[in-house]
Design a protein that fits this description.
Layout (H helix, E strand, L loop, with lengths): L7 H23 L2 H18 L6 H21 L1 H4 L13 H11 L3 H12 L4 H8 L3 H25 L2
Helix pairs in contact: 1-2, 1-3, 1-6, 2-3, 6-8, 7-8
Length: 163
């Protein structure tokens, strides 16, 4: 396989183009700012060292998200991670309504946060999410449906409590 080689100025443009998307994806999966930053840094390091020659912009984006998702999943499986319970003190949302929704999404398990983020925030189809996460399409659909149901219940409870 032929690997892409970057000149320093090209790599800076590459990072700038993708850093926000990868950070939002990593944050949605890990639920932790420090871990998300680490995973994005590691994803760019892997891209610098062994990114393939990309066929298109979409291929480049999909490859980076796949690497980021895999790194985040590995991070979540680590024994060290299982012994800690980090708190997220900042969420990537501008308006207070969005902030509340993102906070509710962050309460979901990682498998649901991942599909919600990729489907709604990154605009991927179920088929694309299946390829990015390595899960079957039926599993992605199931996770998306369950995530929606859980969010609906959480949001209903919040509305009921505010009355």
């Amino acid at each position: 396989m032929a690997y892409r080689s970057f000149r320093p100025e090209d790599f800076e443009v590459f990072v700038t183009k993708h850093e926000n998307r990868l950070y939002r994806t990593a944050l949605a999966i890990t639920g932790n700012v420090a871990d998300a930053e680490d995973m994005v840094q590691e994803a760019f390091l892997r891209a610098y060292e062994k990114a393939p020659e990309f066929e298109s912009e979409e291929h480049e984006k999909a490859w980076l998200i796949r690497v980021t998702v895999n790194l985040c999943n590995s991070c979540l499986r680590s024994p060290w991670r299982k012994r800690t319970t980090p708190l997220l003190d900042s969420y990537p949302a501008a308006q207070s309504k969005q902030q509340e929704l993102v906070e509710q999404i962050m309460t979901l398990p990682s498998k649901y946060r991942t599909v919600i983020h990729l489907f709604y925030y990154e605009g991927y189809s179920i088929k694309d999410i299946s390829m990015l996460t390595g899960q079957k399409e039926a599993t992605v659909r199931s996770h998306l449906t369950r995530a929606r149901q859980k969010l609906k219940l959480i949001l209903k409870e919040d509305d009921y409590e505010s009355v």
